[in-house]
Each structure stands twice: as C-alpha cells, then as structure tokens.
Amino acid sequence: MKPVLDTFEEAVQDIEDGATILVGGFGLVGIPENLILALKEKGTKDLTVISNNCGVDDWGLGLLLKNRQIKKMVGSYVGENKEFERQVLSGELEVELIPQGTLAERIRAGGAGIPAFYTPAGVGTPIAEGKEVRVFNGKEYLLEEAIQADFSFVRAWKGDIMGNLVYNKTARNFNPMIAAAGKVTIAEVEELVGVGELSPDQIHTPSIYIQKVIVGEQEKKIERLTTR
Fold it and tell me: Do residues 38 and 12 lie in contact, with contact meaning Cβ atoms separated by under 8 Å?
C-alpha cells in the first residue's frame, strides 16, 4: 500500500525552493489542481516547472506564475496566459519552448531510463543550436536528452490504495509519462478504491511509479469561453 495522505498541505511539504516539478495536464484538462493550490499556499519559490503549458491567468500553473514562484518554465505551448506573456517579454521568467512531440518523448524517455534519443523535429531551426546532429539514412536528426524531475504531480480519475491509476479520456494526456519520470510522484485522484476494484487490463499507470496518493474533488473550469 502507498501512503494515502489526508491533506494537500502534507502532500507538498517536502518540496523545497529550487525544486524541479513535472506537472500533468493539457490546458486545464487533467491538471492536479489541488496540488498546485497547495504549493501556492506553501509559497515554495525558484521552481523549474515542466508541463505542456502554464495554465491560465487565474487557474492551474498560472497561479504559481502570478505568485512569482516559477523561475523557469519548460513547455511546448504558451497558452491562454497573459501573465506568462508579460513575464517572458519583461525577462522575469526563463522559458524553454520544446516541440510538443519532443517534449512528450523526452519525458517518456526519462521515465523509461533512456538518457537521450535522436529526432528530426527542430533540425535547421533555433532549437538545434548547440545540439549534436547526426545523419541516419540521409536525414538529419537532433540529439535530445531525457527529462526527469525531483517531483511529479499527476491527476487521475480513479486510483487504488496500491497506487495504480486510471485516467479519464483526454485527461490522460501527459499524465502517464509524467508519473514515470519523477523521483517522487504524487497522484491526486478523484476516487480511491480498494485493491482489485480496478481491472488490471485497464490500469494506465502501475503503482510502481507512485509514491503518494491523495483524494481531491476537481473544480470544473473552462479554459476559453466563446460566445456568439
């Protein structure tokens, strides 16, 4: 059995200033919102955050950004975040933008113990600057290094007390690979069930990758509302 924590404050208590954190989600879908809120309240700063994007101005990782807790953001999409744009243009925030497929594979490689791989994405662009380039079958490829982090935050639909996780539809997104690439992975689940209640064939993240589990309700937010 994995530790099932009582409070989100307890879940983030070991995260110190300067930590590197992988955070699941795409837009506002599948984000570990309660863990993010707890980290905001804790006030941990100088963080390097690795996630597809940085939430919106008033939710998700945007809350940490607004609170000046993120020192460096690594992602593939700026998103619907005016504060993100402002901090980048003013030089307050260090940013590393990575092609989305490359980001996903760097995280997956980190979880699989693969130190680096070659990809054609980014060849001949500023992304290639300073990176090794090799030719395979007449085509150029960049060497990209795997990503790992001190902590991973993931969001699951269901989890059991062993730490096995199931994600709901598109909320799976980056979560499974991020769960595998953190030294300590904390899973925020909507529903906790007993051993044997999840079908082994349906488990997306095996318990071996999870160190801590906590249950939390999700507040449904709309990333962009379009009206006619």
Answer: yes
Cα distances (angstroms) measured from residue 38 to each of 8, 178, 227? 6, 19, 33
Tokens of 82: 């005016």
What mean pLDDT value characterizes the chain? 95
Burial 80-102 (b: 16+ CB within 10 A, else e): bbebbeebbeeeebeeeebbbeb
Beta bridge partners of residue 118, listed in sequence order = 143
Inter-CA distances, 42 with 37, 90, 152, 184, Å: 9, 26, 17, 18
pTM for this model (two decimals): 0.95
State how far the Cα of 19 lies from the Cα of 180, in Å rounded to an integer: 17
Amino acid letter, residue 228: R
